């Protein structure tokens, strides 16, 4: 692979390849484009608000927009995790080529997980207004962002619950676990 060097990892049979130069640059540019695109999309879709009778009224917030907001903010929350990991690996010159797909898939995983958690919480937790009848885009965005940011921990916890409930041991046999 161009722009990479090889170092033998003691825990693996294959040597680890570290990204340098061009490979690191491409992943970094992708991440900058990702956060810029998600931010612009969020601003474009954000509903307008007005004050009526002492209450905030959101206009243009239908269920489709709510779903888009939660997915975008889930991806943005995951982006924080991605950017932190990426900058640490690059700063320590330890960005392994095998982790590139992890960086590429973390934001879509955060978006999907945020959507699932939103569906679970949608039964009244995110209501805004006097009678509890209006969705709050801030509540929706907060759930999406928190879920995206903690997506690795949430997935790990759900995996622990499932492993305990269903008592699986297949992961112990995998050679290349995370």
General description of the model:
With 178 residues, the chain is of the alpha+beta class. The mean pLDDT is 80. A two-stranded antiparallel ribbon has the order 1-2. A two-stranded antiparallel ribbon has the order 3-4. A two-stranded antiparallel sheet has the order 5-6. It has one domain (4-168). It is 58% helix and 13% strand. The longest helix is centred in the middle third of the chain and has 29 residues, at 63-91. It is flat, with a radius of gyration of 20 Å.
Features:
5 helices, two-stranded antiparallel sheet, 178 residues, two-stranded antiparallel ribbon, alpha+beta
Number of strands: 6
**Taking all residues together, what is the mean pLDDT?**
80
Shape: flat
What Rg is obtained from the alpha carbons, in whole angstroms? 20 Å
Order of helix and strand elements from N to C terminus: EEHEEHHEEHH
Largest β-sheet summary: 2 strands, antiparallel
| Low-confidence residue ranges | none
């Amino acid at each position: 692979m161009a722009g990479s060097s090889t170092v033998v990892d003691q825990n693996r049979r294959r040597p680890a390849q570290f990204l340098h130069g061009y490979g690191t640059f491409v992943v970094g540019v992708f991440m900058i484009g990702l956060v810029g695109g998600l931010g612009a999309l969020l601003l474009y879709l954000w509903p307008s608000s007005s004050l009526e009778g002492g209450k905030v009224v959101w206009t243009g917030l239908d269920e489709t927009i709510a779903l888009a907001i939660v997915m975008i903010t889930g991806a943005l929350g995951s982006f924080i995790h991605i950017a932190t990991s990426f900058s640490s690996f690059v700063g320590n010159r330890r960005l392994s080529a095998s982790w590139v797909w992890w960086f590429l898939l973390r934001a879509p995983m955060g978006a999907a997980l945020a959507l699932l958690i939103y569906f679970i919480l949608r039964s009244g937790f995110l209501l805004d207004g006097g009678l509890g009848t209006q969705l709050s885009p801030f509540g929706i965005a907060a759930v999406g962002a928190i879920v995206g940011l903690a997506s690795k921990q949430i997935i790990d916890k759900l995996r622990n619950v499932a492993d305990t409930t269903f008592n699986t041991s297949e992961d112990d046999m995998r050679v290349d676990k995370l």
